[in-house]
Amino acid sequence: MGEDEFKELYARLSTVIFSYAARALSPEQAKDVVSETFAAVWRKRNDLPLNRDERSRWVIGVGKKQVLQEQQRVRRKHHDNRFIYEHAKESTKNAAPDIADAVAGSLQARWVWQQLKPAEQELVNLAFVRGLADTAAAGILGLTVTAYTTRVSRARRHIAALLESSDSSVPDIHVSRGES
Q1: CB distance 126 to 151 below 8 Å
Q2: Phi, psi values for residue 106, rounded to 5°
Q3: End-to-end CA distance of the chain
Q4: Which of 72, 93, 114 is where one domain is finished?
Q5: Per-residue model confidence as pLDDT tens digits over 50-62
Q6: Rounded to the nearest 5 degrees, what angle is found at the Cα of 117, between the Cα atoms of 112 and 121?
Q7: Is 144 within 8 Å of 138 (Cβ atoms)?
């Protein structure tokens, strides 16, 4: 089968396969089925029947198999996601309270945050709040990994010094989020 024959086959059957697939799947998935069907037909073009009617039935059969595979993939994905959701729900049920809530609500933590320069706040946000890997955070800041880790180390020392100096000057009164 040459390119011209393939184009003619696609023009003749793509809407038929799309219509069939769209009855069982979303329009986006149906488009994917058409693409996958004709990719498979092109790969197996040497196996195509010579008779035009048999060739059409063969291509439609490939399309039906693609629809079934897509439906199975969707069911598998749904099942996998449901398992992950249930596992996460179960694991958080017995989890200890998040210490971050207490820290975020403390006046001392707020005071320390306000003492940091904007560049230090961004660094702390990437390194400790978001927990990004060194390479990712360095890339965001436009730094080398070495420069980034050096700045993180300096920020830790600065925060430790601020906490030490604030022991007596800032009371550690906890407030709930949303209060000021």
Answers
A1: no
A2: -85, 140
A3: 74
A4: 93
A5: 888 888 899 989 9
A6: 70
A7: yes
Q: Which pair of tokens denotes residue 90?
A: 């179960």
* Residue 63: its H or E element: helix 52-93
Range of the domain at 52: 3-93
Burial of 158 (0-12, 13-18, 19+ CB in 10 A): middle
Assigned token pair, 23: 């009855």
The answer on pLDDT for 64 being more than 50 is: yes
Is 124 in the same domain as 56?
no
What's the CATH code of the domain at 147?
Answer: 1.10.10.10
Domains identified in the chain, total number = 2
Q: Given a cut of 90, is residue 137 above it in pLDDT? A: no
Q: Do 85 and 133 lie in a common domain?
A: no
Tokens 């996601």 correspond to 81
pLDDT band at 160 (very low <50, low <70, confident <90, very high): confident
- DSSP assignment of 80-109, as one string? HHHHHHHHHHHHHHTPPPPHHHHHHHBHHH
CA separation, residue 74 to residues 71, 78, 126, 167 (Å) = 5, 6, 35, 56
pLDDT in tens, 67-92: 998 888 877 766 555 555 555 555 55
